[in-house]
Amino acid sequence: MNKSNVVNLPEWTRAGSYSEDEEKTLGQRIKAWGQRQSALQLLVSKKWMFLLTIMGFLLGRAMILDELSPFAAAYFAVIVFIRRDSILPVAVAIIAGSLFTPFPGGLVIAAELIIFFLLYKGLETFQRVDLSYAPMMVFVSSFMIGLFQTVIGPSFTWYPLMMMTLDALLGFVLTLVFLQALPLLTYRQKSRVLRNEEILCLIILLASVMTGLVGWSVNGLSLEHILSRYLILIFAMAGGAPLGASVGVVTGLILSLADIGAIYQMSLLAFSGMLAGMMQGGRKGAVSIGMLLGSSILSVYFSGPGDMMASTWETSIAVLLFLLTPRALISTIAKYVPGTVDHSRSQHEYARRVRDLTAERVTQFSQVFQQLSSSFGQIPRAGEAGKSDRELEHFMNAVTEEACKGCIRRSHCWDTKFYQTYRYMTDMMTTVEECPDITAAQFPPEWNRICGKTGEVLEVMKSQYGLYQHDMRWKTQIYDSRQFVAEQLSGVSQVMEDLAREIKRESQVMYRQEAQIREALEKLGLSIHSIDIMCLDPGHVEIEVMHAYTRGFDECRKMIAPLLSDILDENIAVTSETAVHPREGLSMVTFGSAKAFEVNTGVAAAAKGGDMLSGDSFSRVELGNGTFAVSISDGMGNGERARMESSAALGMLEKLLQSGMDEKLAVKSVNSILLLRSPEEFYATVDMALIDQYSAQTTFMKIASAPSFIKRGSEVIPVTASNLPIGIIKDIEVDLVSMQLRAGDILIMMTDGIYDAPGYAVNKEIWMKRLIQELEGNDPQDLADSLLDKVIRYQGNEIHDDMTIVVSRLDHFRPEWSNLHVPGLSRMERPRTVS
Hints:
Blueprint: H1 20-61, H2 71-82, H3 87-98, H4 105-125, H5 134-151, H6 158-186, H7 196-211, E1 217-218, E2 221-222, H8 223-239, H9 241-258, H10 264-278, H11 283-302, H12 305-324, H13 327-335, H14 341-377, H15 382-386, H16 389-403, H17 410-416, H18 418-434, H19 445-450, H20 454-504, H21 511-523, E3 528-535, E4 542-548, H22 555-568, E5 572-581, E6 586-593, E7 597-606, E8 616-624, E9 627-635, H23 639-658, H24 663-677, E10 684-692, E11 697-703, E12 708-712, E13 715-719, E14 735-740, E15 746-750, H25 752-755, H26 764-773, H27 780-794, E16 803-812
Antiparallel strand pairs: 1-2, 3-4, 4-6, 5-6, 7-16, 8-9, 9-10, 10-11, 11-14, 12-13, 12-15, 15-16
């Protein structure tokens, strides 16, 4: 079903059981509700049709220099293309308005509309109609009528030809303008920003409509002056001084083209709009005063006392209309004007709705995955299923059908002595299960007395038992696969739930803190375009700053980050930097909490027998959220295949941990993947240290790996765990060892090629401690090289197994630039976290 055609019915129409009378009543109510909805839609459509008709009447009357009328054809063309339901009333209104123009203006405009409509129908017949053709169609229709009028006129001179061409060109340009402006009035825009061109086109359209009021007055007060000032008041209130002045300039220009004697209106309206917009902060009253002052001051210079009083009365009426205008209308306009408070609030509201909807969808998917995981987890084990009565009955039936099918004593055994025969078969099956290689001669003599075909039954039972075992192996494998899928679905569900929780976290709008940062940065002479504070939680600060950067000076790391570190009382660093508008010199920089510790690593490795390719793999990677992972893996054997298994184990484990999956579940997932993808027995050890760079709390994940050692001054601390490598058995046990490291600690991780170097006659742990204590210096790479060199020398310069050593040193993080303090700025007050 097409979702766009689905109607949202009221609650009383929802499902339920109804009697015949109730169903009839419900049907009547649904029909009445549908009629009301149709009436409402018709009313809205009629409202817009009425508005478009009034605009068509005024644009049909509008003229430039009492000679040109380019508005009518351009407006009619746009209506034909985007509002075909209003063609007839708008055409009638345009022709009616043109009757108020000097003769033969009405006939000319009517002819232009007819020519345009014929062109439209001709293109429609050949399926060539396109909106981009509208301006050219207006130009052709206006030029043809103008040329015909000039040819049959009293004199064929250059002036009529020039004015005729100018009228056609103005129609071409106005069509482009109206194509941009009219949809803004007739179609609802969903949380979008109007471009400057669109705002300008809308102002031109409104000013063109007001041109149709030129010459109409009430008690000496000009209607176009009243409406133009009213329009300026609304836009000045919505967009401030720049928008107010722009509306004044455009409106005054177009009105002065219609009446050359009102050329001074352009200056008067521009100044009044600017002054009114400057008073925007004082609400409607202040904006009204600004308009009165601007129009009154310039009226003194441009006109006499009488005209000044008329202008003041016109402004006063416009102010009265402005004061009666609902605040909601002005707010609606302001939502589409970039830079206004209403627009920012609208964008934040739209972003909040999108965020909430996204979080809700993610939560729903998380629940779906959790439900799927529960469904897979409810499947019984293959072994348990195999021992059920149903499986046993199936096994017995298969043996009976083959062994007893042609026996003459079948009815005697299974009818007369059923329980004795069934117990006999059960005991034999148990014996075969315990000893698959048993022969008939090894059976007790009484069994031969019960059944004369014991040997044949035994062979059939062995055959069926083999099939049964094969079936059980497949069922076990299917069960293991389902359990793996269940665990993976559970892990994905948990990751999605964490993501939804992060999305739902309310992003606070911290205007005061943003203003404080902007003030501090501007005191340093930096050009800041925007500041967005995402989070101010200690240890999780995230601030986005768009500024004009200077190549080569690196203000972000040398000035902005040290300043933020001072006012937040926490080390802040640059986490990312992107050039948004390189031509304009704008860059978007993200600042975040700097880590309290940093990890420096060194690696030394050697392959068995001096080969080029080792079966060991190592990795050093940032997992996100301030966690640094140092890992090492030893694949079974040596060479390329061992290297593939060890690197695959580390790669998959790191990706799962980066996604936010629990450590134990991630290890079990990697173990299951290796089991399923490798029909042969290939396995790998894993030794991983997860170091929290904010607290130095470290979690060791050791799976059949050699012990690790922590060198703390002269003390050497071993870190051990005992379990099987991944990829051997399904139910692997994961030992997680947690330790608190300190700055200056040196972590040494190694494969068994290093640890087993002294052989079985030596206490390996004591031997390795002594070697580590003898190491000098604290550079991780030098320590790794030195330790590997000592082990190889100890073995007589022979390499009996792959060797890999990873040395990591934990140090306090020291920013490159010290904190920058600006006098007069205090510590920033951080809001309470909203979750």
